Amino acid sequence: MDFGLTEEHLMIRDAARDFARTELLPGVIERDNLQKFPTEQVKKMGELGFLGMMASPKYGGGGMDTISYVLVMEELSKIDASASVIVSVNNSLVCWGLDTYGNEAQKEKYLTKLTTGESIGAFCLSEPEAGSDATSQKTTAIDKGDHYVLNGTKNWITNGNSADFYLVIAQTDKEKKHKGINAFIVEKGWDGFEVGVKEDKLGIRGSDTHSLIFNDVKVPKENRIGEDGFGFKFAMKTLSGGRIGIAAQALGIASGAYELARDYSKVRKAFGTEICNHQAIAFKLADMHTNITAARHLVMQSAWDKDQGRNYDMSGAMAKLFASQVAMDTTVEAVQVHGGNGYVKEYHVERLMRDAKITQIYEGTSEIQKIVISRGLLKD
Ligand code: CAA
Ligand code: FAD
């Protein structure tokens, strides 16, 4: 394995680092408090090319590799995981799904707007009774010849209200189980499509998470992605790459918390010396750095697997499983290093701790990652 970061990789990483510090950091506490979507910042990220990094240049994408993408995800997530999940969903679920499996007309009509940030996308698989058990879809899309009629409810959808285009997974033939599932492109504003309540969340409070209600929504047949019955595989294949992005998000949250804890320990004094001189604190930093380095290796390996055209189902799941645990452990310890200040919003680590938890839940819980990994191990 040679991750060999090129000059170009370092440039894009530095651009993301700079953007995070100058554009995301200033309002991050306020956005978290007010559950405010980072509209201006998302617009700027579109201009910088962060919203369609891996998509084909032909459709306005950056044509970059997955290594570049995880470097950007890590840097943004060090400061603002609400902003980075918007980037993650748009890049690896929506743009990648359309670029890889959409037809020419779909790419021309939708992808060209999504890669530039002119429009934002959402990926809609989960339902009130179908989260981990994703084949138990209750949303139906009934074939009416030249269109489908979509009915049902999706839950916890990231970019739920901010999106313009939604990739919606629905059951078209219950008898066929997962082979009777399809994926559709649905536009905001279509008759019968309603954005439901906004969730009041523990973390990533700047990202908007909504339920979506479909009531006899007419979806033209040309908006189905791929062959009839491809929807579940579409979702699984797309999520395999998505998990690499969330692993990088977890890595960024952990790195951000570690850097804050390290810096704080060098200036805060107790018992006549900086607290980093107490071995109990220094050892926490050693554990954090070791775990983060291990997580970074897994994240880079999964990105590298994807870039090399190798299978990345397992390596992406391992990266997400491990990095999300590291994010939890590191942020909890970063709060501890900060003492009372760690419990106060101004010092950022309490937010990172709240943000870390979601990385163990979305795009497949940690238990689901273990299912993916163990099935992969035992397959042959
Ligand atoms: N690639 C291609 N095909 C795949 C696949 C993959 N990675 N994983 C499964 N499949 C195929 C299987 O081969 C099988 O097809 P065949 O019968 O033709 O072989 C079919 O899908 C069904 O597979 P399983 O029998 O393994 O299905 P299962 O019911 O046991 O579930 C699961 C498997 C891995 C648990 C899956 O349901 C899963 O991933 N659940 C978690 C859902 C999830 O991650 N949701 C995230 C929502 S998006 C989100 O969260 C975004 C965000 O927050 C920002
Ligand atoms: P459940 O499936 O009910 O699981 C509950 C518990 O049981 C978990 O601990 C789980 O690991 C465990 N469990 C379930 N089955 C098994 C099993 N077979 N073996 C062992 N343990 C098991 N979804 C989207 O489609 N699009 C989005 O954009 C999106 N964004 C989200 C944003 C946020 C903030 C949140 C909170 C969720 C989001 N989700 C999204 C949904 C998310 O993917 C699901 O919450 C997640 O997949 C888990 O599903 P669930 O909540 O129904 O939990």
TrEMBL record:
Annotated ranges, domain Acyl-CoA oxidase/dehydrogenase middle: 122-217
Any GO molecular function: flavin adenine dinucleotide binding
Gene, per the UniProt record: acdA
Protein name stated in the entry: Cyclohex-1-ene-1-carbonyl-CoA dehydrogenase
InterPro entries xref list: Acyl-CoA_DH_CS, Acyl-CoA_Oxase/DH_mid-dom, Acyl-CoA_Oxase/DH_mid-dom_sf, AcylCo_DH-like_C, AcylCo_DH/oxidase_C, AcylCoA_DH/ox_N, AcylCoA_DH/ox_N_sf, AcylCoA_DH/oxidase_NM_dom_sf
Bilayer-crossing regions: none
Pfam families: Acyl-CoA_dh_1, Acyl-CoA_dh_M, Acyl-CoA_dh_N
Family: Belongs to the acyl-CoA dehydrogenase family.
Acyl-CoA dehydrogenase/oxidase N-terminal domain ranges (all copies): 6-118
E.C. numbers: 1.3.8.10
UniProt keyword annotations, A-Z: FAD, Flavoprotein, Oxidoreductase
Residue ranges constituting the Acyl-CoA dehydrogenase/oxidase C-terminal domain according to the UniProt record: 231-378
CC cofactor: FAD
